[in-house]
Amino acid sequence: MIARASDAKNETDVNFFARTFSLLARYEVQEKTKFSKLILVKGFPAGVTAGNKPVIPLDIDLLAWTPQIAAQITNFRAPRGTVLYLSGRATKLSKQQIAAAGLVLREDSIPGFYQKSWRP
Amino acid sequence: MSPSPQLFRTLVLLIALSAVGISHAQFEKSPVLDAQTILRPEILSGKSYRIADAVETVGFLNRYSIEFDFGNLSALGNEQLIQRIGEFEAIGMLREYKQSEEFGKTLEQTLEQTVQRALNLVLKPGKSLANIGSGASKTVIRARETMRRGLEKSGAEKSC
Predict the structure, then answer these.
(1) B108, B114, B119, B122: CA torsion to nearest 10
(2) N or C: which end of chain B has fewer CB within 10 A?
């Protein structure tokens, strides 16, 4: 995975990998856990917890259930219980669809940005 | 009593149709958000900037328009907005410092010293160059002393 990150061809890819690893590190701190290994799920870096549960960090400010997002989530074909670790927040419909796909959604990995009371 | 095959097939069909309905027919459009509603007040505006109300969502990221004292800017994504705000704060602090009395005094002193050194070089070139020389020789002496102490220490360690 590190080789893939270092092979990044442009600034966007570099930023993507940097943000992804930063989110994974944040998850470890927030959940007081350590990933046993890092894997790629459909090209997305993911951490695997001691309980063998993949955690896919997604740098998304607002997850609305658009055709684009639906395609991505469907394309994941991740095992049930996989955690989608979102930097921002998700709409009600997105949450329902993700839950229906057997995935677990964790929002707001960057606390202190959005207003507490705001729900998309 | 078990359900009849006909009823079972109908039920399966209904479930399948509702599932297709959920995953394909119900989509949302990327919304336009209101900065005042979504952002915390401490992020919404600062001494030198203000975030415009309309926040577009482009793909997965929010696009913010920022009215900054030195011009209008945009930030793509929450992460970039946080970076920009940090930069604005730093620029604001520098500007405040520049306007302060302390900055004026320091600038005056620095200018005075620079002019004095330049004048000395022209009016008393011998003494100025000697000063430069003595500064350099002091550095060499200090370096030699450090080296000597280092050698003595390593010699003492070896003898132990």
Answers:
(1) -170
(2) N
ipTM: 0.81
Q: Which residue has the tokens 């055709």?
A: A67
Rg (CA), chain A: 14
DSSP string, B125-144: HHHHHHHHHHHHHHHHHHHH
- pLDDT, tens only, B46-64: 988 999 999 999 888 999 9
Cβ–Cβ contact A93 with B under 8 A: yes
Burial degree of A63 (CB within 10 A; 0-12, 13-18, 19+):
buried
Kindly state whether residue B69 falls inside one of the protein's structural domains.
yes
- Per-residue pLDDT of B6-25, as tens digits, reads 444 444 433 443 443 444 55
Can you give the residue range of the structural domain that contains B136?
A: 101-156
Q: What are the DSSP calls for B76-109, one per residue?
A: ESHHHHHHHHHHHHHHHHHHHHHHSHHHHHHHHH
From chain A, the residues in CB contact with B84 under 8 A are none
Tally of domains in chain B: 2
Segments in chain B below pLDDT 70:
1-25, 125-137, 139-140, 143, 147, 151, 153-160
Q: How many CA atoms lie within 13 A of B43 on its CB side?
A: 20
- Comparing CB atoms, the residue among A59, A66, A97 nearest residue B30 is A66
DSSP-derived 3-state class of residue B89: helix
Q: Facing residues of B67 across strands? A: B50, B72
Q: A2-106 domain in CATH 3.40.1350?
A: yes
For residue A90, the cross-strand partners are: A63
In a domain, B21, yes or no: no
Tell me what the pLDDT averaged over chain A comes to: 87
